Request: fold
Amino acid sequence: MPQEPQIIITSADLGRLDRLLDSTSLSHMPGLDALRHELDRAEVVEPHEIPPDVITMNSMARFVDEVSGREYELTLVYPDDAHLTHGTVSVLAPVGSALLGLSVGQSIEWPLPGGRTMTLRVLEVTYQPEAIRKQQS
Reply:
Protein backbone atom coordinates (compact mmCIF):
# COMPACT_ATOMS: atom_id res chain seq x y z
CA MET A 1 0.00 0.00 0.00
CA PRO A 2 1.40 3.43 -0.90
CA GLN A 3 2.41 5.74 1.92
CA GLU A 4 -0.35 8.11 2.96
CA PRO A 5 0.37 11.80 2.37
CA GLN A 6 0.78 14.07 5.39
CA ILE A 7 -2.43 16.00 6.01
CA ILE A 8 -3.34 19.14 7.95
CA ILE A 9 -6.78 20.00 9.34
CA THR A 10 -8.13 22.87 11.40
CA SER A 11 -9.15 22.51 15.02
CA ALA A 12 -12.62 23.80 14.05
CA ASP A 13 -13.06 21.08 11.40
CA LEU A 14 -11.76 18.46 13.85
CA GLY A 15 -14.33 19.52 16.44
CA ARG A 16 -17.25 19.41 13.99
CA LEU A 17 -16.12 16.10 12.50
CA ASP A 18 -15.65 14.52 15.93
CA ARG A 19 -19.24 15.50 16.76
CA LEU A 20 -20.36 14.03 13.43
CA LEU A 21 -18.56 10.75 14.20
CA ASP A 22 -20.19 10.62 17.65
CA SER A 23 -23.68 11.16 16.21
CA THR A 24 -25.90 8.12 16.75
CA SER A 25 -27.93 8.96 13.65
CA LEU A 26 -24.86 8.31 11.48
CA SER A 27 -23.58 5.21 13.27
CA HIS A 28 -24.79 3.02 10.39
CA MET A 29 -23.03 5.07 7.69
CA PRO A 30 -20.12 3.53 5.81
CA GLY A 31 -17.00 5.65 5.79
CA LEU A 32 -16.88 6.49 9.48
CA ASP A 33 -13.79 4.36 10.13
CA ALA A 34 -11.92 5.87 7.18
CA LEU A 35 -12.70 9.39 8.36
CA ARG A 36 -11.64 8.56 11.93
CA HIS A 37 -8.34 7.18 10.57
CA GLU A 38 -7.70 10.43 8.67
CA LEU A 39 -8.50 12.57 11.72
CA ASP A 40 -6.26 10.45 13.96
CA ARG A 41 -3.23 10.90 11.72
CA ALA A 42 -3.72 14.58 10.83
CA GLU A 43 -1.68 17.52 12.04
CA VAL A 44 -4.17 19.91 13.69
CA VAL A 45 -3.72 23.69 13.46
CA GLU A 46 -5.85 26.72 14.32
CA PRO A 47 -8.05 27.93 11.43
CA HIS A 48 -5.98 31.11 10.92
CA GLU A 49 -2.81 28.97 10.62
CA ILE A 50 -3.99 26.67 7.80
CA PRO A 51 -2.14 27.27 4.52
CA PRO A 52 -4.43 28.44 1.69
CA ASP A 53 -3.48 25.46 -0.52
CA VAL A 54 -4.94 22.86 1.90
CA ILE A 55 -8.39 21.27 1.44
CA THR A 56 -10.55 22.02 4.47
CA MET A 57 -14.27 21.40 4.94
CA ASN A 58 -16.32 23.34 2.36
CA SER A 59 -13.23 23.91 0.21
CA MET A 60 -13.46 23.60 -3.56
CA ALA A 61 -10.49 22.07 -5.36
CA ARG A 62 -9.40 21.00 -8.84
CA PHE A 63 -7.88 17.56 -9.39
CA VAL A 64 -6.39 15.67 -12.30
CA ASP A 65 -6.57 11.93 -12.95
CA GLU A 66 -2.86 11.16 -13.37
CA VAL A 67 -3.57 8.40 -15.92
CA SER A 68 -6.25 9.91 -18.18
CA GLY A 69 -5.46 13.59 -17.65
CA ARG A 70 -9.14 14.29 -17.00
CA GLU A 71 -9.76 17.15 -14.56
CA TYR A 72 -12.41 17.31 -11.84
CA GLU A 73 -13.60 20.02 -9.49
CA LEU A 74 -15.16 18.98 -6.20
CA THR A 75 -16.34 20.69 -3.02
CA LEU A 76 -15.78 18.76 0.21
CA VAL A 77 -18.95 18.99 2.33
CA TYR A 78 -20.67 17.55 5.37
CA PRO A 79 -23.05 14.62 4.64
CA ASP A 80 -26.21 16.74 4.89
CA ASP A 81 -24.91 19.08 2.16
CA ALA A 82 -23.72 16.44 -0.32
CA HIS A 83 -27.00 16.44 -2.25
CA LEU A 84 -27.38 20.21 -2.59
CA THR A 85 -25.35 20.86 -5.71
CA HIS A 86 -23.50 18.94 -8.40
CA GLY A 87 -19.79 18.60 -7.73
CA THR A 88 -19.98 18.03 -4.00
CA VAL A 89 -18.52 15.04 -2.18
CA SER A 90 -19.36 14.05 1.39
CA VAL A 91 -16.51 13.79 3.86
CA LEU A 92 -17.95 10.34 4.67
CA ALA A 93 -17.44 9.11 1.08
CA PRO A 94 -14.14 7.26 0.60
CA VAL A 95 -12.75 9.97 -1.65
CA GLY A 96 -14.10 12.69 0.66
CA SER A 97 -12.25 11.52 3.75
CA ALA A 98 -9.13 10.98 1.63
CA LEU A 99 -9.28 14.57 0.29
CA LEU A 100 -9.56 16.22 3.70
CA GLY A 101 -6.28 17.90 4.60
CA LEU A 102 -4.50 17.34 1.28
CA SER A 103 -2.53 20.20 -0.22
CA VAL A 104 -1.72 21.20 -3.79
CA GLY A 105 0.61 18.68 -5.43
CA GLN A 106 -0.38 15.73 -3.22
CA SER A 107 -2.05 12.64 -4.68
CA ILE A 108 -4.50 10.03 -3.42
CA GLU A 109 -5.71 6.74 -4.78
CA TRP A 110 -9.48 6.71 -5.27
CA PRO A 111 -11.04 3.21 -5.23
CA LEU A 112 -13.37 2.55 -8.15
CA PRO A 113 -15.94 -0.20 -8.70
CA GLY A 114 -14.43 -3.51 -9.75
CA GLY A 115 -11.32 -3.15 -7.63
CA ARG A 116 -9.62 -0.57 -9.85
CA THR A 117 -8.17 2.68 -8.55
CA MET A 118 -7.71 6.16 -9.92
CA THR A 119 -4.86 8.41 -8.79
CA LEU A 120 -6.00 12.00 -8.26
CA ARG A 121 -3.51 14.84 -7.78
CA VAL A 122 -4.59 18.18 -6.28
CA LEU A 123 -3.99 20.95 -8.82
CA GLU A 124 -5.47 23.94 -7.02
CA VAL A 125 -7.62 24.87 -4.05
CA THR A 126 -10.00 27.30 -5.77
CA TYR A 127 -11.96 28.20 -2.62
CA GLN A 128 -11.09 27.73 1.06
CA PRO A 129 -13.32 29.32 3.74
CA GLU A 130 -10.39 30.02 6.08
CA ALA A 131 -8.43 31.85 3.35
CA ILE A 132 -11.48 34.02 2.59
CA ARG A 133 -11.88 34.88 6.29
CA LYS A 134 -8.17 35.84 6.49
CA GLN A 135 -8.57 38.16 3.49
CA GLN A 136 -11.60 39.83 5.07
CA SER A 137 -9.95 40.50 8.44
The first strand starts at residue 8 and ends at 10. The domain at 8-136 is CATH 3.10.50.30 (Chitinase A; domain 3). The mean pLDDT is 88. DSSP finds four helices and seven strands in the chain.
